[in-house]
């Protein structure tokens, strides 16, 4: 049995868990951080010195720990200092079998090597809420068996932590650099040195109290660091001699450096209630009003009301309105509270290093006419955009629906269209909807002002435009059908003739994403790479393209939905057959070099007309490339990407959406090499999609609603996060749970239809399950797809190597059978190319089932872990040869009950007012209580042939009538209306 330990807060609250890492007791300040990746960078960040770091995302250690190897300038490639700085790590669940090409050891091993303890099995959401409500607290991690009194509480704020982490002697990096920068090490992160040296600076890093001689440098940099800035009196005194002169040299401070500079000029600092620590803090630039996503780690802040004259606020936190930066009006001095150097986190403002070093260069050359304040204004101003107040709002907007349901285009567009109508009505804009699908919520009474049940074709839409004379049209809320119709209307000149303005993404941008040749050219303009591909207009051209690319190749139809007509060809004969079929649907086919077996990653990106950009959600397909994303099991957020990969793909997504000029929401898909950080862009969908619906429900972020508002020209920072009612919508959600989407096929209803799945979509529905463990969410999702399935069941399909290699709609159950039969994870990886991390998680389920089968009378802990692994009572009963009722009684007698948690977009950092709920056995506290009577509305579950959006329409109609009483709605499809934004007072996605 694993050793146990207890985290004890200063108010006596205790959190028990399983010990990993070093077998030692420690004490310090307990803090939480909401980043979903980047634990090696966080643990080695000197700003976390003597802190017990709680990570809100529950699954930690997934990608292991890389080798501590030297990179550029002799700095560690992967870490931010020479050792782990945090006193302890507190998490939900440790991954014992990490999987990543860079990993050489587990997180557990790494912590042991550094003498740092970790605690897992903690309800970190409960702990986060405790800190949020009470403020940052002292605490101690006590190994069970150690006297509690023997571990005294240690308050790190009562000593000079900077002195502990700062280097003892000066050190030069990039000695041949042209600009001399002295960097004061108050706990400097390696990436700050790297960001300066990469830009041509000779960086001399000096200890925190080292005297500063202005003749030794061209510019001064003041780093981040831990603790209370008031302990650094020697540093403050040294900086004052540089800053408080008539013609100072350029100065740039970050984090603690920002606080020290503020103290130098006479401003006040204060300790925050619980600080800002995470990768999604939105900061608004004073002057431009643009909002940027930043990485932060600080517990102290600057009081902007105490700034002296000639100093201005540079950035302000859009959530808590704390100060995030200051700048002198005329002198070349500025500082920021956030971490523009990132690592871990987003790189949105890393260009501040460019501004600083250009200022240093110009001052060195005697070019001092332009102030650094003006330089920053010029650098951050988005050229060519209208001011929000100058945007002319439409009075009447035409919304194109998606028409009849089809494979690849179903209830998600009813959801997105309904949200768009609500968003427009809130702005007092008249709405006209065209959608012939009667079984939809958006066509119901009370939503759109007018509804036309007509085909979504240029001919019929033109007639409606003639009659209604709208001054705006939305094309991105009706799937491929609406997009194609919008392109046709533009080419025919209808929109121009009747002065109908396309809201949101321009048609030209849509065409860039749809025409493969143009898309490739646009990506080359920004040095991004698309999978090697050629467009063909005939069979002969396709054959010639395949010969140049080399077999195997992927054949796809242009302007097609759900991979219609696509497939893999290994030979010329297979290619000819595929291409001939594809030309029945399109005039152009795309021949792509096969990247089968690579990881498939998706990002949902939002951009407004003023260039504010966020990535709302990233998703990882469990099935590797080669299977259409609509056919794949998908998990959100990604589980096997490290911080470098996560933010590399995030940066690319933002760069692409900016270059294409997309306004609103778009989906970008990547192929990522599982053996390196090489990637290709697969495609961009400049519209709401099935993935958008999943991202919206998975995060709680109302993508369609926000996209409609952005189409009207409303700036993203002005929109509120509807879940918190206090923070901005210009942010990136932090998840403290795991979401799994599983598709449903009804192929058995058709004779002679192949059950093989691939690049062409066949699934008719999908479900979304949520848990604080992958296994929990995964097994719940499998039961949601088919109520007759007990979970990851090895009895449904026999073992078949062929079916593992060539997937079918039942491959997941072949995997279960293979694990039961003793296949190793490496064997299964070679057959399926499913990442080993996911295979190990599936093996956990199989191993625990095997353990259950050895018991006649299940022990308490074994039973409890089974529930945490997502086992249903019926599933446990089958394993122990009992009955479901007997198992249920045993569970209730032992008080093994799930808890209710909220999907709040902010990982409990802010209070939430949300109707998105889920059940989990990974928790000790309910987020909500249901003491008064409720009415539960049971949804229809996953879409299937004979049961789809019409029952969603029924559920929504029922809920609408019940709105005067409290309602609890149980459903699970991510693309339906009933569990939608502001629809029900309480929505639970669960099947237990």
TrEMBL record:
Residues 967-992 are annotated as: Disordered. GO terms for biological process: 'de novo' pyrimidine nucleobase biosynthetic process; glutamine metabolic process. Gene3D superfamilies: 3.40.50.20, 3.40.50.880, ATP-grasp fold, B domain (3.30.470.20), Carbamoyl-phosphate synthase small subunit, N-terminal domain (3.50.30.20), Carbamoyl-phosphate synthetase, large subunit oligomerisation domain (1.10.1030.10). PROSITE patterns: ATP_GRASP, CPSASE_1, CPSASE_2, GATASE_TYPE_1. The keyword Transcription does not apply. Its EC number is 6.3.4.16. The lineage of its organism: Eukaryota, Metazoa, Chordata, Craniata, Vertebrata. This is carbamoyl-phosphate synthase (ammonia). SUPFAM superfamilies: Carbamoyl phosphate synthetase, large subunit connection domain, Carbamoyl phosphate synthetase, small subunit N-terminal domain, Class I glutamine amidotransferase-like, Glutathione synthetase ATP-binding domain-like, PreATP-grasp domain. It catalyses: hydrogencarbonate + NH4(+) + 2 ATP = carbamoyl phosphate + 2 ADP + phosphate + 2 H(+).
């Amino acid at each position: 049995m694993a050793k146990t330990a207890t985290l004890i807060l200063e108010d006596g609250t205790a959190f028990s868990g399983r010990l990993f890492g070093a077998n030692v007791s420690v004490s310090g300040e307990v803090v939480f951080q909401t980043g979903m990746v980047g634990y090696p960078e966080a643990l080695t960040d000197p700003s976390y010195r003597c802190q017990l770091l709680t990570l809100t995302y529950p699954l930690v250690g997934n990608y292991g720990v890389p080798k501590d190897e030297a990179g550029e300038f002799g700095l560690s490639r992967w870490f931010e200092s020479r050792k782990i700085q945090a006193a302890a790590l507190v998490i939900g669940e440790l991954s014992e079998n990490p999987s990543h090409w860079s990993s050489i050891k587990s997180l557990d091993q790494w912590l042991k090597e550094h003498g740092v303890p970790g605690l897992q099995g903690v309800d970190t959401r409960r702990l986060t809420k405790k800190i949020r409500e009470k403020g940052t607290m002292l605490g101690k991690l006590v190994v069970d068996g150690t006297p509690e009194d023997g571990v005294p509480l240690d308050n790190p704020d009562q000593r000079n932590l900077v002195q502990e982490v700062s280097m003892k002697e000066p050190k030069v990096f990039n000695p041949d650099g042209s600009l001399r920068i002295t960097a004061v090490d108050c706990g400097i992160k390696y990436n700050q040195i790297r960001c300066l040296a990469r830009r041509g600076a000779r960086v001399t890093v000096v200890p925190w109290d080292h005297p500063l001689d202005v003749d030794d440098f061209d510019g001064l940099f003041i780093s981040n660091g831990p603790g209370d800035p008031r302990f650094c009196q020697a540093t403050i005194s040294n900086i004052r001699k540089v800053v408080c002169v008539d013609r100072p040299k350029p100065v740039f401070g970050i984090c603690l450096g920002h606080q020290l500079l503020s103290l130098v000029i006479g401003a006040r600092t204060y300790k925050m209630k619980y600080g800002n620590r995470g990768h999604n803090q939105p900061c608004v630039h004073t002057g431009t009003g643009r909002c940027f996503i930043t990485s932060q780690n600080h517990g102290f802040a600057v009081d902007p009301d105490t700034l002296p004259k000639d100093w201005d606020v540079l950035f302000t936190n859009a959530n808590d309105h704390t100060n995030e930066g200051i700048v002198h009006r005329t002198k070349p001095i500025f500082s920021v509270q956030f971490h523009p150097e990132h690592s871990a986190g987003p790189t949105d403002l890393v260009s501040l290093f460019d501004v600083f070093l250009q200022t240093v260069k110009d001052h060195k050359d005697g070019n001092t006419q332009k102030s650094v304040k003006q330089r920053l204004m010029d650098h951050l101003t988005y050229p060519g955009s209208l001011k929000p107040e100058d945007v002319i709002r439409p009075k009447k907007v035409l919304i194109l629906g998606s028409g009849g349901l089809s494979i690849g285009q179903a209830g998600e567009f009813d959801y997105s269209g309904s949200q768009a109508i609500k968003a427009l009505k809130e702005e007092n804009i008249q709405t006209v909807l065209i959608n012939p699908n009667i079984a939809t919520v958006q066509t119901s009474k009370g939503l759109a002002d007018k509804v036309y049940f007509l085909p979504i074709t240029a001919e019929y839409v033109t007639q409606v435009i003639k009659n209604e004379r709208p001054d705006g049209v939305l094309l991105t809320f009706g799937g491929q059908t609406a997009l194609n119709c919008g392109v046709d209307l533009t080419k025919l000149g209808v929109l121009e003739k009747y002065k109908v303005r396309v809201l949101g993404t321009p048609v030209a941008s849509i065409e860039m994403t749809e025409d493969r040749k143009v898309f490739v050219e646009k990506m080359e303009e920004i040095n991004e790479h698309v999978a090697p591909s050629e467009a063909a207009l005939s069979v002969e051209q396709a054959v010639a393209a395949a010969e140049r690319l080399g077999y195997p190749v992927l054949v796809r139809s242009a302007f097609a939905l759900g991979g219609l007509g696509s497939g893999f060809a290994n030979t010329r004969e297979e290619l000819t057959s595929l291409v001939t079929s594809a030309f029945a649907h399109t005039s152009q086919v795309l021949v792509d070099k096969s990247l089968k077996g690579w990881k498939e990653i998706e990002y949902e990106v939002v951009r407004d007309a003023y260039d504010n950009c966020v990535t709302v959600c990233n998703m990882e397909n469990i099935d590797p490339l080669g299977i259409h994303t609509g056919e794949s099991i998908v998990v959100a957020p990604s589980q096997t990407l490290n911080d470098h990969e996560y933010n590399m793909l995030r940066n690319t997504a933002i760069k692409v959406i900016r270059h294409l000029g997309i306004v609103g929401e778009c989906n970008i898909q990547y192929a990522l090499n599982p053996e390196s950080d090489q990637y290709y862009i697969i495609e961009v969908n400049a519209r709401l999609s099935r993935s958008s619906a999943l991202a919206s429900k998975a995060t709680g972020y109302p993508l369609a609603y926000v996209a409609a508002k952005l189409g009207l020209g409303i700036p993203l920072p002005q929109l509120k996060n509807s879940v918190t009612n206090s923070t901005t919508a210009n942010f990136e959600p932090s998840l403290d749970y795991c979401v799994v989407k599983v598709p449903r096929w009804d192929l058995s209803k058709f004779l002679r239809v192949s059950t093989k799945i691939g690049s062409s979509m066949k699934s008719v529905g999908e479900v979304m399950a949520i848990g604080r463990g992958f296994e929990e969410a995964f097994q719940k999702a499998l039961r949601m797809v088919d109520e007759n399935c007990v979970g990851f069941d090895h009895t449904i399909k026999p073992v078949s190597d062929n079916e593992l290699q060539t997937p079918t709609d039942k491959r997941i159950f072949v995997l279960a059978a293979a694990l039961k039969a003793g296949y190793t994870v490496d064997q299964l990886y070679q057959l399926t190319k499913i990442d080993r991390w996911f295979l190990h998680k599936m093996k956990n389920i199989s191993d625990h089932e095997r353990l259950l089968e050895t018991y006649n009378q299940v022990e308490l802990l074994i039973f409890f872990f089974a529930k945490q692994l997502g086992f249903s009572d019926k599933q446990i009963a089958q394993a122990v040869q009992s009955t479901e009722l007997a198992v249920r009684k045993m569970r209730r007698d032992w008080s093994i009950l799930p808890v209710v948690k909220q999907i709040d977009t902010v990982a409990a950092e802010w209070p939430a007012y949300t109707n998105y709920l889920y059940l989990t056995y990974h928790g000790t506290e309910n987020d909500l209580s249901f003491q008064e009577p409720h009415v539960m509305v049971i949804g229809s579950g996953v879409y299937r042939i004979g049961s789809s959006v019409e029952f969603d329409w029924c559920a929504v109609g029922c809920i609408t009538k019940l709105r005067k009483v409290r309602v609890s709605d149980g459903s699970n499809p991510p693309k339906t209306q009933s569990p939608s934004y502001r629809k029900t007072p309480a929505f639970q996605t669960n099947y237990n």
